[in-house]
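Rather than argue in generalities, we have chosen a single entry, letters for residues, whole numbers for local backbone shapes, without further comment.
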Amino acid sequence: MTETDDSRNDDSRNDDSRDDDVPGQDLAIGAEVLYLINLLALPFFGFLGLLVLYVRFRRTAPPLARCHLAQTLSASLWGAVLLLAVNALILLLGGYTAPSTWVVLVLYFSTCHSTLVILGVIGLAKAMAGQLYRYPLIGRDCI
């Protein structure tokens, strides 16, 4: 075994013991995960969990977590507004049995919903990297 092999083994042992997390990173990751759960799996429960986190930590969390909490809550509210608008449009165009229903739904899911999901994935990647992220157009300014 050469000296470089020994140093590689030492580095791999040190990776597990490092503690260089950014303050609030776990909470930021949790907010982004709940946002994605809200969009993709359990809409009401994901939003409820996100709302509980926001109310509990909005003033006491480190800046990274506060930023991600504000972004995800804002994006979730915008998503709800867009969903209500789509439902109103469907009703105006003849209800849920009209052929235009599928056109509106396909347009909504291929533009609005998928964009919100992509923003959530980017936000999760930024949270995992310990970086601030502001959702374009719909996000609130971070401190």
